[in-house]
Amino acid sequence: MFLLIITQLSKIVNTFYAVFTKITKQMMPFYEIFRPICQFLSTVIFFSYILSIFWKL
């Protein structure tokens, strides 16, 4: 059950990241600035989501 949730979440994060990188590659000068920020944000969102699931249990 828990592994299923994690795999679903990682798929969501991966698709979000793929879309974001496609958009940022159109604006290449900003790409190098936004990439670490995006990685950080997706990680924060991912972990806060996991924590909220744990909180409800």
UniProtKB/TrEMBL annotation:
Keyword Transmembrane tagged: yes
Identify the domain of life: Bacteria
Q: Which UniProt keywords apply?
A: Membrane, Transmembrane, Transmembrane helix
The transmembrane segments are 33-55
According to UniProt, the name of this protein is Uncharacterized protein
